[in-house]
Amino acid sequence: MMMRSRTRNYRLMVAAALLGVIVLLSALAPVLARHDPRAARPEDQLQAPSEHYLLGTDLLGRDIYSRVLYGGRRTLGVALLTVVVTLPGLVIGLVAGYGGRWLDLALMTLMDALLAFPSLLMALALIALFGNGMVQIALAVGAAGIPAFARVTRAAVIEARGMPFVEAARSVGARPEAILWRHILPVIAPPLLAFAGVTLSWAILNSAALMFLGYGGYISAPDWGVMLADGRAAFRVAPWVALAPGVALSLTVFAINLLASALNGQNGRG
Amino acid sequence: MIGFTFRRVGVALVVAWLAMTLAFVALRWVPGDAVDSTLTHAGVPADAIAARRAALGLNDPLWQQYVDYVAGLPRGDWGDSLISGQPVSELIWQNAGSTAALAAGALLVAVVLGVTLGILAGTVRWRIGRYAAEAAASLALSTPVYWTATLAIYVFTVTLDLLPGVGGSGVRHVILPACVLGFHTAGSIAQVTASSIREASVQDFVRTARAKGLSEFDILDHVLRVGLLPVIAVVALQLGFLLGGTVITETIFVRRGLGRVLLDAISSRDYPVIQGLVVLAAVVYSLINALADVVYGLVDPRVDMSS
Fold first, then answer.
1. Is some CB atom of chain A closer than 8 A to the CB atom of B121?
2. Which residue of chain A comes nearest to B157, CA vs CA?
C-alpha cells in the first residue's frame, strides 16, 4: 500500500511539473517569443532550425518557435472553454442520479441517443450548423462531450447515494438539495475531477483536429492544429514544421492524462 | 439467450431511432439551407429558387418531412444530395467499401497491438519492461492521427520508400493509414487491458491456483480468461472513435471514402448527406455495442442474461 501511494505521488508530481511548464511557457509567450508569430517573411521561407529561428520557419517564413508558444495559449484556451461547455452534463447527471425514476429514465434515454453518435462526427455535424470559428469549435466539441459527462456523474451519484451517511442524513430529514450539496458532491468530486482531466485531453485532441481540418476560421492565427496542417503541406522538404507543434501537443495531452490517472489512482477512459 | 439478444438489439434500434430523430430536428433548425447557399450565391432568380425548394420538399410542414424521411429509410430512400442530386444511399454505397477496409484494418492493428501491450504492462515482472509497455500505451494515447500520419508518411514513404503514402485504393495503400489510425486506438485498449489484468491477478482464485502448485503459465491462463473480458466492451466503444478517426485519416492520405464525403457535405451545407452519414454511424455504432454485450454474455458464464 505504501509503495502504491508513493508511485502515485511521483506520477502526480511529474504530471503537475510538466503541465506547469507548458502553461507557464504559453502564458509568457509575449516575453519569450522572438518574433511576431503572425509576421510572414517570404524571404525566410522554410528555414531549418538555427540560432536566429530556434525551431525553423514555415512555408510563409513565420518563426515556428514563437508560433508554438502563442499556439499553446490558443489551443489550451479553446480546450478549457470546451470543458466549460460540457458542464451542463454535470447538472444533467446530478439531476438524473438524484431526481427520481422517471426523470432519470427520460434524461438518460436522451443521453444514450446522443452517445450513439461518435463524438468527432457529432462535433463535425455541429460545425455544419454553427459555422467556422474558434468559439464554434469549442461549442461543437463541448456539446459532443455532454452525454459522457452526464453518464459518469450519474453513475457516481448513484454509488454515493447508497452510502450509509447519506442514508443517515435522509433519515434525520435533511432536504434533498442539502444532501446533494453537502454529502454527495464532496464524495463524487475526486472521480469527476479526474474525468474532467480526461475530458480536457480529449478536448485538446478533438478541437485541434477540427482546427487541422480548417474549421478554425481565422487561418493565420497560431494554433497547434493549424500548424500541424501547415506542416503536412511542407513535410517532404521541411519536417520540422510539423515536428514542433506535434511534440507540444503530445506532451500536453500526455501530462494531462498522467495527471488524471494519478488523481484517479487508476487508468482513465481512452 | 435468444430473448436477451432480441431485447438488447431492440434497445439499440430504439436508441438509433432517437438519434436519427435528433439529427433530423437539429439539421432543420438551421437558418440557411443548401438551396440558399448554392443558388443565391450563384445569382439565380428568386422564383427559380422557390421552385427548387418546392421540388425538394423543403416547404412541407416539418412533421410531413419527418414522416417522408422515416418512411423512406427502410426502402433505401435516404433523400438526395442537395448539390449533385445523387441519392444519398448511392453516394454512401459507392464510398463505404473504402472506409470499411480502413476501419477493419485499423481495428485489427488496434486490437493486436493494444492487447499485446496491455498484457505486457499487466503481467511482466521485470520493471523496466513493464514501464516500456506502459509508456508505449501513453504515447499512443497522446499522439493524434493528424500528427502521426505526417510522421509515418515522412518515415515510411519519403525516407524509407517502403509503402505508398497518399492516394491510391489498393491493398498496399490501406496498410499505412490503417496502422496510423489503429496505433492511436491501441492506446486506450492497452490501458484498459492492463488494469483489468492487474485486477484479475489479485483475485482469490489466482491465490488458490498458486497455492495448489499450478505452473505460472497455467496461472496466466486463468488470469487472462477473466482479465481479457472487458476488452470486448472497450473494443466496441473504441469503434466510435475509429469511425471519427477515419474522417481525418482519409483526408490526410487523400483516400476516397465516407469521411471525405462528409467533409465535402459539411463545407457545402449538404444536409441530407450529413444526416445520412451521421445516422448511419449512429446505427452501426449502437448495433455493434449491442453485439458486444451479447458476445460478452456468451463468453462470460457469470453474466446472467435472464434478467
1. no
2. A236
